[in-house]
Amino acid sequence: MNSAEILASHGPRESMEYDVVIVGAGPGGLATAIRLKQKAAETGKDISVVVIEKGSEPGAHILSGAIMDPRALTELIPDWKEKGAPLNQEVTDDAIMFFSEKNAVRVPGLFVPPNLANHGNYIISLSNLVKWMAQQAEALGVEIFPGFSAAEVLYNDDDSVKGVATGNVGISKEGEVTGDFQLGMELLGKYTVFAEGARGHLGKQLIAKYKLDEGKDPQSFGIGIKELWEIDPARHQPGLVLHSAGWPMDSNTYGGAFLYHLENNQVALGFVVGLNYENPYLSPFEEMQRWKTHPNIRWYLEGDESKGIKAAKRIGYGARAINSSGLLSLPKTVFPGGALIGCNAGYLNVGRIKGSHAAIKTGMLAADAAFDAVQAGRQHDELAAYPEAFEKSWLKVELHKDRNFKNWFKKGLGRWHADERLRAIRPARPHPVDNSPHQGRSRMLETRPRMPRDQIPQARWQAHV
Q1: Closest to 190 (Cα-Cα) out of 23, 54, 49
Q2: Does domain 89-122+221-322+404-465 correspond to CATH entry 3.30.300.130?
Q3: What CATH number labels 3-77+127-218+326-399?
Q4: Is the pLDDT of residue 435 over 60?
Q5: pTM for this one?
Q6: Alpha-carbon distances of 190 from 34, 337, 455, rounded to whole Å
């Protein structure tokens, strides 16, 4: 039986009505919920908000590096430090490295591109931050339903979004109803905010239905693989951020890696590969395992009995899809009855390798628009105030600066590094680097003299950091 047949024979579904329904209890979805309740408290108005989350609890399905820019969180919850937000390890050092198989070159601090400088940022567990944000949301009166995935978008007769339906449970692998069957529930809202993360399945349907990506560059994605290790205290350097490019990737494959030193003798290792790689035999997971054998990475993981240093222990791992398109591929983010926020729309800043601050900021902007619309008695129309506010925000300025990062990076590391340094000392490039298909590769909308590769300042880096 398909879902329509099950609904016909076991329906109708029960429903619950809210002012705003939010799909996904990540940083963006929870920021939306918190902001809505904050505005209600500020104005003395009431607004009902529900968040549904597919994980067993908020944070259960969250996977990220992560280095967080606290700017958006500070706007949302100015006293986050006093309230115990788990931002404990501030970045103390940035190491940008180019790897060959046995050696490494560190970019001198003077030449680190500004988009990769992390002064004032924090190395965090995004999962722990989301758990904390869920607590703040619930304290404000937000209803959170964990363990329920949004399986279907529901529409009004005029094709506007009226909410979502959760998935049925108790269905056998043959598609038949079992004794544990339970029909999904409809969550109906005047507005529905989708915060599913990158490649959210409902977001993809909405983009296609309303043609939200019309006239935009194609979205592009990568896969990010992360491992969490506990290392010997003698080799732990709290606050160290290491990013590497080059080996084991070839010059035609987009990607890079990172090693972040958190608190409690933990390090996060990550490897990102663009999903447009040309070699059909390339395995991102196996490439990460090769990367871990590089002397500058292996040093942190292997033990040394002669010095009393214990071997590191892996305590967690996972993988996720990552947006890597940027501003040029950002779709229209509103449609009748709803909005896309965070990575569900593609707000991740690939140049800074950060997306959680963008998710929080866009969640706040969508919340402001939705709250004003509900208080004005509107429903199921377009929240035009949300994209208008984004156009005037600091996030738009930030994404505009880094809009060419991915496409320059694909031209080669030397050209990317030179362009990033030149951008730091003169106005941003007036024209974008196009990401449209052109004879199998991206093409340039403008050309200008390149800095010769042998003139790019480099410094030999032979120590472990």
Answers
A1: 49
A2: no
A3: 3.50.50.60
A4: no
A5: 0.87
A6: 17, 7, 58
Contacts of 77 (CB under 8 A, 6+ apart): 34, 83, 85, 136
Do 145 and 23 meet the contact criterion of CB atoms below 8 Å apart? Answer: no
- Closest Cα partner for 128 from 180, 53, 64? 64
**Tokens linked to 302:** 């292997």
Q: Is 264 exposed, middle or buried (0-12, 13-18, 19+ CB in 10 A)?
A: exposed
Q: How far from the centroid of its chain's Cα atoms is residue 433's Cα?
A: 22
Q: If you count them, how many residues does the chain have? A: 465
- Where along the chain do its domains lie? 3-77+127-218+326-399, 89-122+221-322+404-465
Q: What is the pLDDT of residues 7-30, one digit of tens each?
A: 888 878 899 999 999 999 999 999
Give the confidence band of 432 by pLDDT, cuts at 50, 70, 90: low
Tokens of 359: 């998710």
Which of 42-51, 69-78, 271-280, 436-445 comes out lowest in average pLDDT? Answer: 436-445
Cβ proximity of 371 and 38 under 8 Å: no
Pull the structure tokens for residue 161.
């979004």
Question: What would the pLDDT profile of 275-317 be if each residue is shown by its tens digit?
Answer: 988 899 999 999 999 999 999 999 999 989 899 999 999 999 9
